[in-house]
UniProtKB/TrEMBL annotation:
Membrane topology category: Multi-pass membrane protein
Subcellular location: Membrane
Keywords, in A-Z order: Membrane, Transmembrane, Transmembrane helix
Matching Gene3D superfamilies: Sodium/glucose cotransporter
Predominant subcellular localization, coarse grouping: membrane
Highest taxon of the lineage: Bacteria
InterPro entries reported in the protein's UniProt record: Na/Glc_symporter_sf, Na/solute_symporter
Name of protein: Sodium:solute symporter
Organism classification: Bacteria, Pseudomonadati, Bacteroidota, Sphingobacteriia, Sphingobacteriales
Matches recorded under PANTHER family: SODIUM_GLUCOSE COTRANSPORTER 4, SOLUTE CARRIER FAMILY 5
Pfam families per UniProt: SSF (PF00474)
Entry's family note: Belongs to the sodium:solute symporter (SSF) (TC 2.A.21) family.
Xref: PROSITE patterns: NA_SOLUT_SYMP_3
Amino acid sequence: MLGSLDLSIAIIYILLILAVGIWAGVSQKLENKGSASDYFLAGKSLKWPAIGLALFATNISTVHLVSLAQSGFDTGLLNGNFEWMAAFTLILLALFFVPFYLKSGVSTLPDFLERRYDKASREWLTMISIVSAIVIHIAFSMLAGGIVLKTLFGFDMYLSITVICIITGIYTILGGLRAVVITESIQTIVLLAGAFIISFAAYDKMGGWVSMKDVLVDEGQLERLSMLRPHGDSSGMPWYAVILGYPILGIWYWCADQTIVQRILGAKDENHGRVGALFCGFIKILPVFIFVLPGLFAYTLFKTGQLDLTSLGVDVAGNVNSKGIYTLMITQLLPSGLIGVLVAALLSGLMSQISGALNSISTMVSYDIYKQKRPHATDKQLITAGKISAVVAMAFSLALLPLLDKYESIFNGINDVIAHIAPPITCVFLLGIFWKKASAASSKWTLWIGSALGVIVFIANKLLPGTWIGQVPFMVMAFYLFIICVLIQIIFSYRFPVQHTAESKELYWKNPLEPLRGKAWKGIGNYRVLSGLLLLIVVVLYGIFK
């Protein structure tokens, strides 16, 4: 249990974010008289620094802080692949997707899918996106936040999360995307500062990198420093699973998920959207060192007797229940006061994830459901519908907590769910922008059949864990499902040939090099230069930690 100083710091931080969020919302309303575009897309005025920071904040939640440290303790740097591989998909987002999203002037990704395909595709993506936002972006984040608050302060998990959600909901619902982006920018800085503090504390306690490596050698665990593992690795995530499976998950998450891409849709122009995405790609290099690595340091500290994990539960064989490793590191490695800063960082991850998801849900409900039923709805009616939907989504997320708490690793739970949702969506977006012949009928059937297959495989995996289907790593399963979806879309595209509209024929690339010919800023701000630099850095890092 922590002291009053740390609790006070956490409370002051929460109140500060609430005040900033309300101020941002009120000032926007005074400036722009409450138009729907200003509320949902910040008047399409966002610049690249805010976009990059907001993308990162929406992605990184308390789940990442807690579960990546847990994975670092359990398997080493392996789950850092989800961070560095994201750089490749953010390059894809910047080069190939951003131009179409902004040129088409869409408010939501389901809207884009209708313009490229048809209304049925829009309706299906809307439903899937809302469900995934509630489960993946909000409920799992709530669960991780609740575990942290219960561990550190002894608070009732459900009560404390409900209070945090109400506070987050207030400024999100009042202020719209502008309030979300401004608060997310602050929260990203606080989150990174907190992560650096715990990383340095663990590094200092261990005596540096060489000391940690010596312990790994003595324990016969040097492979924990490897990002790409061989076939048959006990982690269940060999190198080919990462190479084949991550792009399927990553393209959906970074390029086709409304909760993430909404920050791009609010960009001031194409260059700000592209550079904002790439800026996030550069920030994504950090989590391996400040989220995953502290968990690995915790493992070596435990092996050398410098970290007491008795409270987590250690069996006779020395196996640890590592679910609370991050909070335990905070309490044992940091002095009072700094602990409060770390709690603020954890709350930043929780609040930014929830606010971003609530904003995207309200946008989709307003534009993709309410406005479709009532085409002549006023801006005020659209905003009201969005606010009501945000409240309902928050209530549903709270109700899901007991069910999701059954996952041993929250991070793996999230990616397990994504692996069965992503394949059909990744397929229709990729073929939609790269293949002229991808037809509306093929998109509809791919989404329907692919989603049904994902649900069937997910259920079979849980009910029949001993069969072959239960033995396939979820990343490899995502690749298999994607290949099936591609075949489905190709077959249906030839069975029901495309009939392009004047709009849809402008929403696919005629030439693979065309994205590199767009207008770009001069110097280091050139998106082509930044893409090449980011690609080079990540490839070099993989060469070091292969």
